[in-house]
């Protein structure tokens, strides 16, 4: 019985250590990303391209079903370190991409 308890305790300790290490790495990455310059919400496509240059890839606009007022077209531009999302011609969000596929965080965009 003591052997099983000790085995479980060691296993849990190793797993907890791995999770803590992953969390620490993600926290460190977020802290270093705070220095990354991203497009500001409300900036136009022309302003983003003037400040950050041409994106590595431009994705076509995607709109939801129904009226354009309720489901406006959303366009995504991909840069090396971040993605920019536009509603019509203005930035609604900019998101930093993962450093590695195994990094914990939001699921990557599938094309």
Low-confidence segments, ≥5 residues, pLDDT <50? Answer: none
Number of strands: 4
Count of separate structural domains: 2
Q: Given the C-alpha coordinates, what overall shape results?
A: globular
Q: For the largest sheet, list the strands in their spatial order.
A: 1-2-3-4
The chain-level structural class is: alpha+beta
Computed Rg: 21 Å
End-to-end distance, in Å? 52 Å
Mean pLDDT: 76
The run of helices and strands is: HHEEEE
Main beta-sheet annotation: 4 strands, antiparallel
Approximately what portion of the residues adopt beta-strand conformation? 15-25%
Number of helices: 2
Residue share in helices? 25-40%
Protein name: Lipoprotein SmpA/OmlA domain-containing protein
Organism: Arenimonas oryziterrae DSM 21050 = YC6267
Keywords: Signal
Strand and helix layout:
Blueprint: H1 2-33, H2 45-52, E1 57-62, E2 74-78, E3 82-87, E4 90-96
Antiparallel strand pairs: 1-2, 2-3, 3-4
Fold and architecture overview:
Keywords: Signal. This is Lipoprotein SmpA/OmlA domain-containing protein. Residues 1-22 form the signal peptide. With 111 residues, the chain is of the alpha+beta class. The chain folds into two domains: 1-35; 38-111, no CATH class. Helix content is 36%, strand content 22%. The protein has helices at residues 2-33, 45-52; strands at 57-62, 74-78, 82-87, 90-96. Strands 1-2-3-4 form a four-stranded antiparallel beta sheet, with no helix packed on it. A hairpin with a 3-residue loop joins β2 and β3 (82-87). The longest helix has 32 residues, at 2-33. It starts with a helix and ends in a 15-residue tail after the last strand. The model has no long low-confidence stretch (mean pLDDT 76).
């Amino acid at each position: 019985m003591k052997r099983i308890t000790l085995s479980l305790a060691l296993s849990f300790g190793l797993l907890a250590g791995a999770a803590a290490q992953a969390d620490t790495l993600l926290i460190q990455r977020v802290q270093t990303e705070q220095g990354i310059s991203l497009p500001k919400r409300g900036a136009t496509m022309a302003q983003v391209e003037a400040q950050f240059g041409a994106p590595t890839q431009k994705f076509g606009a995607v709109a939801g079903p129904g009226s354009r007022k309720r489901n406006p077209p959303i366009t995504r531009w991909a840069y090396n370190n971040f993605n920019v999302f536009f509603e019509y011609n203005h930035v609604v969000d900019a998101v930093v991409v993962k450093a590695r596929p195994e990094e914990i965080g939001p699921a990557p965009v599938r094309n």
